[in-house]
Design a protein that fits this description.
globular, homodimer, alpha/beta
Chain lengths: ~425, ~425
């Protein structure tokens, strides 16, 4: 019934992202402080933190990862925000995209003018087995009970995609190689290495240890080699899966009518969309996420933009397979055409539709609660032409999107930003 | 900076609350379905569930309590809402008051017209020790590490209150006796018994077992007897503490401009407020919650009402001590006067300022994630004169409030509803 339009516009005027990685000796407050300080410094005309009316913070389950819940007031205390309000949102790996959206609503409602939104997650304190189990609780109760943790879920989706569209796992290599070409250009990336860098590192290691030196003719040959790229849940191999990460992200949102008092270059929220899905157990089409399509419909509807208008995007490549699904669900490419477009290089940094210029979850890292806002941060950086070495060469960047997925498609968000 | 006013009004047109208790053989979906069905039936002119634009669901940590996170899409699936959006909020025991507020913002922003908000928690699958530990993670990291779980926190607050205002633990009996007088009038209450009922049950049990029959002259004598009311964390005794509970709650919010198409008797959201606090480790005044005061300031400011205008309220009596703090922080009584007002009966159902007509968390039950919306549900029921046997006798009820607290005052919400 809703009009799906905001009665007051919202702009992004600042942002920050912590260096991603595994930092067992640091904690979530450190990561958030790192992103918060960058945010403060990013605002041309400055902001008085006292003017921040409210905070929204996305977190998946630090409850489980560090045995501490209720992160809202911890963050409020950290940044000197007490006694003003803070709200945590959770939508699994889409937790902070939800925080972003609530920040937009809080301003659009007329109640607040300046809202900080962000996300955080600390995964490194747990073992890989515990993390796999913890992440599994984001799937539907039917899935984990049946043994479906996420690599298995996306492996299942992949075999279906391959059968339906007549391709095979080699097509996924193109996604991984492309993401890792962008990563070294991003100083925040957890793995700032190309696949060729990984190859060379392995060759060097073999030489140092006096072992036979492998001869891979190219990156694809490297990824084909199970001794370096072992299967995780067939056909998902190691290099198809994003890493476990720690990190935090934040963005400062303000009402459109006051945006210019913070910066001459505000980036506007053109469209917001969110959807929910059945997860695997009742989905009608296993090579598409219903929640993404609904989120896209809301965001396109609000913005008036079409998929062709979205010049570049960050999408939720928790697995290489997921990127292909998303770029089809968002309408960038027709169903079954995403893998061809990727093979043709259309999604590369210098291509006509750059996808995951940050390096994506695969190489930038995926501290799950931080990811949604981290993606929007990347789009904001690109639109301001502040993305440094990974800046998209297109000089007329005006519109970009960020798509964030939680669980097995249980929650999805799509956000469209615009430079005017 | 924000104006703290909504640019579009919001009304409550329906609501539901599950029976509270410990239901080990049922699950959170059952509880939510129970509250949802009551909500559907409560709307005079009916609602088509297809018209619900979005859902907000508060949950503290089913992550820990039932090892399942990401409850948003589970609830979306349950009520046939897929692919429309659902968002979980968390603020410890204030989780669903935050869901309520986000629902208000989503409508006030102009984006949606009809939003379902609710909360749920399932605590009965864990042992009491595990629950104490799980709840402890809602406190600040400094507290749990120092051994402060919640009974200890509120015990500490109580000894400070007693010393400061020259009273003692006997004053808390008045809170407990009053709450338990309301509980038998609430068919949803977990313990629909007065303290006298507990006394008589114990006497009957002793008779049946051939044990000496205790002779308590009144309820206070019963509460004074440590064989029936043992200390938990001095001076908090068993009857000062709310129980462990399962349950769910929901309310249907719609834009003010369409409210009359759902019911002739909408109840309007007059004020919303939320605040954050330092918890114990850095609080300046241990007998007051800064977050409550800030939340109250926002809600009073938006509504134009003063504490005297609030004719009745639900407040977060996780412990009897907490109720006294809240009725002072909300401005109903001066600091140090809450215990006197309670002793004088001013907060009783037939008194001039009824508090916790539902029986409160103490006797109604406290499934933590469900509580915030459950409190607002009670205020909504009273304002519609649908509270049955516990209906406040005042025939001119027009304004009521609900205050929800999370952690050691880390998160607090205050909501004011109005009948026009």
């Amino acid at each position: 019934m809703g009009k799906k339009k905001l009665s007051r516009g919202v702009a992004i005027v600042g942002g920050g992202l912590s260096k991603m990685g595994l930092f067992k000796d640091r904690n979530s407050k450190d990561f958030f402080a790192e992103s918060y300080l960058e945010m403060l410094g990013s605002i041309d005309k400055g902001v008085d933190p006292k003017d921040i009316d409210a905070i929204y913070i996305g977190n998946f389950t630090n409850d489980f990862f560090v045995n501490q819940a209720h992160w809202g007031p911890i963050i409020s205390d950290l940044v000197g925000h007490v006694p003003k309000p803070v709200t945590r949102t959770e939508g699994a790996c889409a937790s902070s995209a939800l925080a972003f959206r609530e920040g937009v609503f809080a301003i659009a409602s007329g109640f607040y003018d300046v809202v900080l939104v962000g996300g955080l997650e600390q995964m490194s304190k747990r073992t890989t087995e515990e993390i796999t189990e913890g992440l599994g609780t984001a799937g539907s109760p039917y899935e984990v009970a049946a043994g479906f943790t996420f690599p298995g879920v996306f492996g299942n989706i992949a075999t279906n995609y391959f059968a339906k569209y007549g391709t095979n796992r080699e097509t996924l290599f193109n996604v991984t190689i492309k993401s890792h070409l962008n990563a070294p250009l991003n100083p925040k990336a957890q793995y700032p290495m190309t696949i060729r860098d990984f190859m060379n590192a392995r060759i060097e290691k073999c030489r140092q240890k006096g072992m036979p030196v492998p001869e891979w003719e190219d990156e694809k040959a490297f990824l084909r080699d199970v001794t370096v790229n072992p299967p995780i849940a067939w056909p998902m191999h190691l290099f198809d899966c994003c890493p476990i990460s720690d990190g935090a992200s934040c963005l400062l949102l303000v009402a459109e009518d006051i945006a210019k008092s913070f910066t001459d270059n505000p980036i506007y929220v053109a469209g917001i969309g969110q959807g929910s899905g059945y997860s695997l157990h009742a989905t009608k089409n296993i090579t598409s996420f219903e929640a993404t399509k609904y989120a896209a419909q809301e965001a396109y509807g609000m913005s008036g933009f079409t998929p062709d208008d979205i010049q570049f995007a960050e999408v939720h490549d928790c697995f290489s397979m997921a990127e292909l699904i998303h770029i089809e669900d968002l309408g960038f490419f027709k169903p079954g055409e995403g893998h061809k477009a990727t093979a043709e290089g259309l999604t590369m940094l210098a291509g006509p539709k750059p996808i995951n210029t940050s390096g994506g979850l695969k190489s930038k890292g995926h501290p799950v609660g931080a990811t949604g806002v981290a993606q929007i941060y990347e789009v904001w950086m690109q639109l301001r032409e502040k993305a440094g070495k990974r800046q998209i060469p297109n000089k007329n960047l005006r519109v970009g999107g960020a798509q964030n997925l939680g669980g097995t498609g249980g929650t999805c968000s799509f956000t469209i930003l615009e430079r005017r």
